Structures are given as structure tokens and as C-alpha cells.
Amino acid sequence: MSQVPPPMTVPPVGYQTPGPNKPNTLAVMALVLGIGSFFLCFVPIYAGPVGLGLLGAIGAIILGYMARQKIARGEQSGGGMATAGMVLGIVNIILQIVLILIALIFGAALLGFGNRMIQEAERQQQIEQQQQTDGVESTDAPPATQP
């Protein structure tokens, strides 16, 4: 019968043992930025309309793209995390655009409502002034006499 050789403890020359397949750091950062951008989407930057979430989303897309390029070359793993980071970044940018449009529409409606209220108050004030001047003229005028 055949004998099974004992397992080799040292790999033969020219053979590299596969190391632990670490995920790409850029992929991890893209995923973290993609998730974090949702928490930061309501934090505005001082003196600007852009929120921190939007900057995080853009960073997630860029880092995810860079990680996908490295993964495609076979340098590291983590394609799922890179893709998830990119998708979260894109979804967050769409969410930010929708929120900005809603805020603009609400602001325009509120401004229009405020203008109507001001016009109504001015008209009411003019009516009151007209009534006061009519009342003053009628009390100062001598009573009409009939012949």
C-alpha cells in the first residue's frame, strides 16, 4: 500500500503562502464616510449652504472609487465595502439635493405667506385711517340745515 508523505512544514522555494486577506483601508474609509454622512447631513458648515454630510458623501464616492481600482488590480480585498460606501455616498447626495429643494420650496411659500400677511395688515391700517379721517370730518362739519 502507498504511504502518505508527512505534511511539509516549510513551503517549497518559490511558493508564497497566502497571508490574511486584509480589506482595503480605502474601502473601509469609504464605508465609514458613507454611513457617517447620513448622520452629518443636517450639520451645516458655517456661512455656506453645503452640509458636512455632503462633503462626507463626496469623500465616500471618491475613496470608494479609488478602492475599487485597487481591488480590480488584485492588490487587496473589500470590494463590497467600497461599493457600499459609493452607493451610500450617491444616495446621500440625492437626499441632500431633495432636502435643499424642500427647504427652498418651504422658504418661498413662507415668504409668500409673510408678504400676504404684511399686505393685509397695511390694507387694514389704511381702512382704519380712512375711517378715522371720515369720522373727524363728520364731527367737524356743521349739521346740514334744510330750508
The outline comes out as: rod-shaped
Provide the β-strand percentage band: under 5%
N→C terminal distance: 151 Å
pLDDT < 50 stretches: none
Helical residue percent band: 55-70%
Q: How confident overall, as mean pLDDT?
A: 79
Element order: H for helix, E for strand: HHH
- Rg over alpha carbons: 36 Å
Sheet of most strands: none
Kindly state the number of beta strands.
0
The number of helical runs is 3
Determine the structural class based on helices, strands and strand pairing.
mainly alpha
Concise description?
The chain contains three helices and no strands. The protein is mainly alpha-helical. The longest helix has 62 residues, at 79-140.
Output the keywords.
147 residues, 3 helices
Any overview of this molecule?
The chain has helices spanning 25-39, 52-72, 79-140. Helix content is 67%, strand content 0%. With 147 residues, it is mainly α. The protein is rod-shaped. The chain has three helices and no strands. The longest helix is centred in the last third of the chain and has 62 residues, at 79-140.
Give the topology.
Layout: H1 25-39, H2 52-72, H3 79-140
Helix pairs in contact: 1-2, 1-3, 2-3
